[in-house]
Amino acid sequence: MASEFIIQAESIGKTYRVGSSDVEAIRGFSLAVARGEFVSLMGPSGCGKSTLLNLFGCIDTPSSGTLRVFGNDASTLSDGQRTALRLRRIGFVFQRFYLMPMLTAFENVELPMIEAKVPRHERRERAESLLARVGLGHRLGHRPHQLSGGEMQRTAIARALANQPDLIIADEPTGELDRRTGASILALIHELQSGGLTVVMATHDPHAAELGNRVIQMETT
Amino acid sequence: MMWRVAIRNVLRHRLRTGFSVAALAIAVALLADMLMLSTGMEKTFNRVLSSVGYEVRVCPAGTLPFGTDAVIAESARVERALAGDARVARTLRVYGTTLYADSLPVVAMGIAGERQSLYRIIEGGDIDAASPPRAGRVPVVLNANAAAELGVAVGDTLRLEATAPGAALAFSGGATVLVTGIMDIDFDLPGQRTLVAPLAMVQRLRPTAPDAASFVLAKLRTEDGDDPLAPAPAADQRGVAAGIEAAFPELSAYSMDALMLALQRQLAYFKQFATILSTISLFITFLLIAVLLTIGVGERRGEIAALRSMGFGQRSIRGMVLAESIVLLAMGAVIGAGLGWLLAGYLDRILTQSPSLPDGYRFFIPEWREIVLAVIISGASGIAAALLPAIQAARVDIPRTLHEEVV
């Protein structure tokens, strides 16, 4: 049934205008991601992994084909509707963490909940609990520059979970981490998926990709 | 949280913020001082004119009191016309000229009228301006400076002459006068020697016209008849002035507001100067905020794109950037308000030391109203400057920015 799928992509394409020429980043890509699934996107740089994640995460819209995210046709959603969808239902984990450097780990996790207008006492409880869950219960008041790379990515994962999303989009989450730290981050993501979250992750690393229920091998168009 | 984020973003680059806030503070202070300069002079005129207690001033056409040597030829006729108006309570004719008291030049004012409020007696008694002088014993009052420099006290006599000692031509001889009092007058320049005598005597010593006066003042009736300085309704003032101008086309009659308007026209140069500097300070504020926020937004494009991807709406992003401009402006305004206040006092002290200014004249009158106005205007300029960076931040191309940040 359609409702069991978080993402349904049918022959989607994405073309960017670069200078005076069009660059086709994705062509005729189809995929359905079921609730609770962990899908890994593998492939060389420039094959369109990040573009695909942007489309699945409703950051961008496809140039062709049909993409449904949580049952919504992504092409017809307004910017405000896609923003609301990202806020409530999608959590993002970036390669470069993108933590706010002037805020503490606690405040970084609290930030998306403020935008979602979660009551103060609830967001405090939730931020503390999420940071404890990713093993940073003792780092609440630390700023990003006081954290290690692994701790920063853990904070970013806690932030991605803040508004209790159904889908986690992770773009090279271990790209800036050493192998050992990266392994612990992957284990954490895997644990989240085991708890019922849907995960779509782009990676270069074949070992990381193997964590997924499905590995989609992409090639440069 | 938005304000916390804004404050911490602003404090991220402390040196940059410090310099910018200092520049903003100077711009706010400059604007506040220019507002004070343009209003300070008007307020001084208003205060000095109101303190005299006369609301209508009649002068030769196109002149202002003490503005020229022109005289009203038939001042008694003007006085009678004023006295015939039921709205007028009392009048004072004034003839200002230079005379020589014991060979020293003094600013002499001949006056005629009842219950004058042009000056205040601080020692002895006033001349009886309503009565003609008694032969040989004409009463005069001096300001403290004249009394000190002439070495006379109440009860002493002086020799008044129309011309300087040794002048080739001598007019109308002189008179021996009796000092009956020491007075204080608001219009005195620093170090000025001033003498007030009955009008008839000054007219005799300076016979330019049979019944000459520089100007005629009128105090109008008020509901509070006991207060000699209580202002009469503006409509009455304008009515009396219009009546005089209709009856005497060769004269100009000013109500208080008309006189203020005429003085403001004379201050146009200062106002222009103040307007130009105010505009420059507003541009400085605008450019500072615009440059600072454009740089800040440019540096944080990745963070902004990440926030947008996490579900932060365009409105929230705009709000964050605008909040930063408000934080910067608030810091600049607090320092600028204090700086403007101190600078106004300092500049006022320097400018009012000029010997060509009457005592009590102020260029800058530090007042919170002007400070608050400067802060509001600067704030509006700064927020306007923040709009473009705020819109740019909200419209950041999320996929492209995230891609560029990673590359």
**DSSP helix fraction of chain A:** 25-40%
Ends of chain B: how far apart?
Answer: 31 Å
User: Which pair of protein chains has the largest interface, and what are the residue counts?
Assistant: A-B, 37 and 25 residues
Largest sheet of chain B: 6 strands, mixed, barrel
Mean pLDDT of chain B comes to: 86
Query: What percentage of the residues of chain A does DSSP assign to strands (E)?
Result: 25-35%
Apparent shape of chain A: globular
Number of helices of chain B: 12
Detailed description of the structure:
The complex is a heterodimer of chains A (about 220) and B (about 400). The two termini of chain A are about 30 Å apart. The model of chain A has no long low-confidence stretch (mean pLDDT about 90). In chain A, the strands form two sheets. Chain A has a five-stranded parallel beta sheet, sandwiched between helices. Chain A has helices spanning about 50-55, 80-90, 105-115, 120-135, 150-160, 180-195, 205-210; strands spanning about 5-20, 20-35, 40, 65-70, 70-75, 90-95, 165-170, 200-205, 215. Chain A has seven helices and nine strands. Chain A has about 220 residues and is of the alpha/beta class. Chain B has about 400 residues and is α+β, with helices and mostly antiparallel strands. Chain B is built from twelve helices and ten strands. A six-stranded mixed β-barrel of chain B has the order 2-3-8-5-7-6. In chain B, helix 2 (about 15-50) crosses helix 7 (about 255-265), helix 8 (about 270-300) packs parallel to helix 11 and helix 9 (about 300-310) packs across helix 12 (about 400-405). At the A-B interface, helix 1, helix 2, strand 6 and helix 3 of A face helix 1, helix 9 and helix 12 of B.
